[in-house]
Amino acid sequence: MADRKVVSPTESRQATPQRTNYRVLTRSLLIALVAAVIVYAYFYLQSPA
Fold it and tell me: How many of the other CB atoms lie within 10 Å of CB of 16?
């Protein structure tokens, strides 16, 4: 606990240069889209012709 970095509120609101938030949001959106396509395809193939 002694090596904690103290930052101001302004510094804590700044974006990170690694863009980790952007990567997480992008990957989760892609996973959600793939899941939606799989579910849609499953129900489409199960419907009677």
Answer: 8
